[in-house]
Amino acid sequence: MTYQVIIPAAGQGKRMGAGKNKLLLELNSIPVFIHSLKVFEEDELCDGIILAIHPQDEAEFNSLLKKHGVNKVLELVPGGKERQDSIYNALKTVKTDGIILVHDAARPFIQKEHIHRLLDTAQETGAAIIGVPAKDTMKTVRDDVVMATVERSSLWAVQTPQAFRFSLLRSAYEQAEKDGFIGTDDSSLVERISHPVTMVEGDYDNIKLTTQEDLFFAQAILQKRKGSF
Question: What is the CATH number of domain 3-224?
Answer without folding.
Answer: 3.90.550.10
